[in-house]
Design brief:
Blueprint (H helix, E strand, L loop, with lengths): L13 E5 L17 H13 L7 E5 L11 E3 L12 E2 L2 E4 L5 E6 L3 E7 L4 E7 L1 H5 L2 H11 L8 E4 L9 E2 L14 E4 L2 E4 L1 H11 L7 E3 L22 E7 L1
Parallel strand pairs: 2-4, 2-6, 3-5, 9-13
Antiparallel strand pairs: 1-14, 5-8, 6-14, 7-8, 7-9, 10-12, 11-12
């Protein structure tokens, strides 16, 4: 864990931390989700910040034709890893103190949304698919339906792939006005600004710009972080979020 890279925008009643390569991989994609070395490293990482991995919910991201990529799931004590190995969802939400949300990522934008008034927290997987599906808007709507006011929400986005290095071959939103400032086409490739696009969606849904914080770390160029696009298909960092 790199102290200088940790978020500082949250109050003391919530813990949000991000691992780095020096914590080892939080998920080896060449092995099972819950192999013994990964569980050991997850537990050791959590212990550094006085959290317990067996009080966390492992967020499982699924990719297939049946996914909407904007599915937010509420979790509670019965969902922690001691009772259940994982919960599938593009976003996990909890109101329960002491239940940690644990998301492994490499290049995608792990995003924490916190309501400091009602003490609700969510962890979102804002990768390309979920960004296209407007998960950020779905999340604000979810909080609002639970009684939150969007202008109270605090948002933090993790180290991730940035526009200057993150490209796709095909892009269906080239003529979508919402995307005009968040992509550029160069040599037949589309370079996407996923953090910037999601930031704008949060703002349009009522989150105050001053309450949105984006890590400047580019996982594709920073050697301290795993990058799938950078050639490491196995390694993953993790973001953990918990109400104390």
């Amino acid at each position: 864990m790199i102290k200088a890279d940790q978020p500082t925008c949250f109050p003391d009643d919530v813990a949000v931390v991000v691992s780095s390569k020096n914590d080892n991989t939080m998920l080896d994609r060449s092995r099972s989700f819950h192999d013994a070395p990964a569980i050991r490293d997850r537990a050791q990482f959590c212990e550094q910040v006085s959290l317990r991995y067996d009080h966390c919910v492992f967020q499982l991201i699924q990719y297939d034709d049946n996914q909407t990529y904007c599915h937010v799931v509420e979790v509670n004590e019965s969902d922690v890893t001691a009772e259940r190995e994982e919960v599938a969802g593009d976003g996990l939400f909890t109101t329960i103190q002491g239940v940690g949300l644990f998301l492994p990522v490499a290049d995608c934008v792990a995003t924490v949304v916190y309501d400091p008034v009602l003490r609700y927290i969510a962890l979102l997987h804002l990768g390309r698919h979920a960004t296209y599906a407007d998960l950020s808007t779905c999340a604000v709507t979810y909080f609002t339906e639970k009684g939150s006011r969007p202008n109270d929400l605090i948002v933090w986005m993790s180290p991730s792939a940035k526009r200057e290095t993150y490209w796709v071959d095909n892009f269906d939103f080239e003529n979508d006005p919402k995307w005009q400032n968040y992509y550029e086409k160069n040599d037949g490739k589309y370079y996407l600004d996923l953090p910037g696009y999601n930031q704008q969606r949060f703002i349009e849904n009522g989150v105050q710009p001053a309450n949105i914080h984006i890590s400047g770390i580019n996982t594709m160029t920073n050697p301290d972080y795993f990058s799938h696009r950078g050639g490491d298909a196995k390694g993953r960092i993790a973001v953990v979020a918990m109400i104390r």
